[in-house]
Amino acid sequence: MKRPPTFMPRSAFGGRGGSPRSRKDAALQLVSLEFGADRLERELEAAQKKISVCRAALLRKATQRRSLLGQFGKHDDQYG
To answer: What is the pLDDT, as a whole number, of residue 66?
Structure first.
């Protein structure tokens, strides 16, 4: 005796592989994409802020290093 085919429920986003099947699926997919884009923009802004903070700390440490090397009278090219 053969089994009947299994029922695969439709996902809310039409499987995300192709075009949405209905206006509702398209609207849900659009909202999802907009939220995803907003999240990525926030993450990008946070990463750029972290880069600027790290760059400032690096410059501060380089200045301190040069100052300390100057106190010892060493001018090593490796350290700037």
So the answer is: 93
**Rounded CA gap, 27 and 22, in Å?**
9
Distances (CA, A) of 61 to 1, 6, 56, 70: 77, 64, 9, 14
The stretch 27-43 carries a mean pLDDT of 96
Give the Cα separation of 80 and 69 in Å (integer). 10
- H or E, element range at 72: helix 23-72
pTM (two decimals) = 0.56
> What average pLDDT score do residues 41-57 get?
97
Sign of torsion over alpha carbons 69, 73, 79, 80: positive
Q: Report the run of H or E that residue 34 belongs to, with start and end.
A: helix 23-72
Diameter over CA atoms, the chain: 92
